[in-house]
Amino acid sequence: MKNNFTLRLLLTVFVFASGALAQSGGELRFVLHSEPKTFNPVLMEDDSSESIRYMTGGVLIRVNRQTQQPTPELAQSWKVSKDGRTISFELRPDLRFSDGTPFSADDVAFTMKQLMDPALHSPTGDMFRSSQGQMQVNVSSPTRVSITFSAPIADSVKSFDQVAIMSAKSPQKEMAVLGPFYVAEDKPGAYIILKRNPYYWKHDAQGRQLPYFNSVRLDILQSQDTEILRLVHGQIDFINSLSPDYYDKLEAENPALVHDAGVSLDSEFMWFNQVPGAPIPNYKKAWFASTNFRRAISEAINRPDMARIVFKGHAQPAVGVVSPANKFWFNSQLRPHPFDQKSALARLRQAGFVFQDGTLKDRDSHAVEFSIVTNANKNRERLATLIQQDLAGIGIKINVVTLDFPSLIDRMTNSYNYEACLLGFVNDDLDPNSEMNVWLSSSENHQWDPKQKTPATPWEAEIDKLMREQASTLDQNKRKKYYDKVQQIVWEQEPFIYLINHDALSAVSPTLQNVHPTILRPQVYWNIDELSLNQQLARNR
Amino acid sequence: MKWARILAIVFLVTVASASLLANFVAPASYAYQFREEPDASLSRHHLLGTDDLGRDRFSRLLYGTRVSLLLAPAASLLASLLGLLIGGLAGFAGGWIERLVMSATDLFLSLPWLFLLLTVRAVLPLNVSPLISVTITFALLGCLGWAGAARMICADARSIRESEFVLLARASGNGGLRLLWRHVLPNLRAIALAQFWISIPVFIITEANLGILGLGITEPLPSWGGLLRNLQSYTAITGEPVQFVPLILFVAVVGSFHLVLHDKELTV
């Protein structure tokens, strides 16, 4: 009898330890800050739509948010040809969409056709449009498909993480999905209900079909204050992204609620307007075009204070274009620019500036004064205010101007009527190819001087060359070498003055199990099919 | 009630004096960041502690009060004078002029102020000092706030135009301008003054709302709007009680203005 009891106890412990504690059923609840603009996965570009796509869409390959490596999903294997133009997928057999329609290679072909349809202007399709010419999809069997691009697309494998496969035959069209959930109810402006996909193909170690949750309720709510109160009162299960103020507040109340996954890919940065035709005085254009001036400004900014005061220690001084969180692509030889106002003044003297009676003047005795525009974002305004005091230390007067976002964008992209701008860079993609539209001098998003016919400076020409070379090379180590050089040039020239990389902060109710927040989006629910409720704790919610 | 009014006047005078003498009373510059002491509690050095950037809260409150208490009455004066001019002339002239002016006033009242302010702020030059920026903000408020006052004053001017003493004055040979200057305008003084007093707290609240939207006064210059903006988030709800001092002062000043308005000379 005793042996029997011991055996049962051991079995219980084993079952608990092996994750069987995860209970099926229940509803996962969290907040979307805006209404999804579309449920069509090829047309999605806003955060809320992308959240829906992540939870409902089945993809060929998924980038594991913890390891940052591609893992098989609908494709059980894939192979890239030597010339880097063709990717062949071996698909899992006998899968079905959420409405029961069988899945085959034809659906992959249909989805790729939709993605590349010029009439649809798919933002997801842009990732595969790095060269002119048609893409070809060859279906050789129901489980084999190959995609051939007109030119090599480096590391395009990871881009398939965002391609949700659509059904070519389902009467429900894009609403038939292969992901863990499907959209069951949409009450515009109020909530969206996702239900468990009865045909979802994944199973846990015990052979139980995933996902564990029966449904997901997404409340549409703009205010993070209300979101936090809902979390505290057990009405939602997690908050995916928290500001440092809220993090500290929640941590003080209940340390078990909050998670700091470490430094994220996102950064805050500023730049000077170097557009030759910008409606600003010529002597200011000359300041902004001077590398010494930009380097001096960078050195006169106290980044550790920014991380400590504005981000309450949940940030670190930025090194450059790539965050240290991007494990493979970060150039580890580079260090953040130190806070050194003496060195800054020395650089300014080299560039012909004079520091006299607390005021910095250029060669023609113009006092150095410029404005920094930013959007109505509390943390950015705080950063600008810190910069104001830091630069006053080297005799520079800063005017901080907060503008509504459309006005700011208009100044940045149409009128070029601004002097310096402070904004944030939200990065979802680890690969440098996603930044081609920023670094190429001909690009519209080359913000300090966009749409150049020929590179304005030798170092911009060098960046153009290196970015093109890395994009057309398949050898990852070679690509890394080219991109390291790009980071080095950006670090030296500072067309963008990178300020800080902030941490990925989130809050999770203790009722939720199997949660491992990461720095990559979607931080908390990247493994949504494995999340479950602790039934004992959940009874009280 | 008389004592309450006296207390309100004393309070307003004290607050106004302290803010006007901020250069001497404030223990630190309103802009200086004591970076080793962000969010500090009350202390001998910082009577109301420091804000999230380490700036002395008491100094910022004094300077912020100065900005709001000086510029809100100025904006109110501008709005009331415009209201007196437009409403008074329309009411005195009567007929199609009155109808036309009042239709234009109604149209002006229906304009979405916020979007207008957003647009104007967006087209302003960027390199203006915070002081000029705040002056422009209040000037805009003054220029946009005349319509309500004009409607009230127009109604009063109309009744004065139709009154017996104006009829007698006309019969005595008083012409248009003389009639306006000697008989109508003096009788509009009370309503114009009431409009002036009523508008002051309205403009203070408007500036506070603009500050909450990030469109008011630019950093680092403090104003009540900017100070109240710090209280808008959940993180401030259970923070240190000193955070609420700007709110208490704001409510007390607005309340005091209303108590002063009970004076019979200022009510219509």
What is the CATH architecture assignment of the largest domain in chain A?
A: Roll
> Helix fraction of chain A?
25-40%
In terms of per-residue confidence, which ranges of chain B show pLDDT below 50 for 5 or more consecutive residues?
none
What class do helices, strands and sheet pairing of chain B give? mainly alpha
**CATH class category name of the largest domain in chain A:** Alpha Beta
Work out the strand percent of chain B: under 5%
Radius of gyration of chain A: 26 Å
SS elements, strand count of chain A: 21
For the sheet with most strands of chain B, the description reads:
none
Report the span from N to C terminus of chain A.
39 Å
Give helix % range of chain B.
55-70%
Description:
The complex is a heterodimer of chains A (541) and B (268). Chain A is α+β, with helices and mostly antiparallel strands and 541 residues long. Chain A folds into three domains: 22-57 and 179-237 and 509-541, 3-Layer(aba) Sandwich (D-Maltodextrin-Binding Protein, domain 2); 58-172, Alpha-Beta Complex (Dipeptide-binding Protein, domain 1), CATH 3.90.76.10; 263-502, Dipeptide-binding Protein, Domain 3 (Dipeptide-binding Protein, domain 3). Chain A contains 15 helices and 21 strands. In chain A, strands 11, 12, 13, 16, 17, 18 and 19 form a seven-stranded mixed β-sheet that branches. A four-stranded mixed β-sheet of chain A has the order 1-10-9-8, covered by helices on one side. Chain A has a four-stranded antiparallel β-sheet with strand order 4-5-7-6, with helices on one face. Chain B has 268 residues and is mainly alpha-helical. Chain B is built from eleven helices and no strands. The longest helix of chain B is centred in the N-terminal third of the chain and has 37 residues, at 57-93. Chain A binds chain B through residues 224-225, 228-229, 245-246, 248-249, 302, 305, 309-310, 369-371, 373, 376, 381-382, 384-386, 388-389, 399-404, 407, 410, 417-419, and chain B through 31-33, 35, 38, 52-54, 118, 121-122, 126-130, 213-215, 218-220, 233-235.
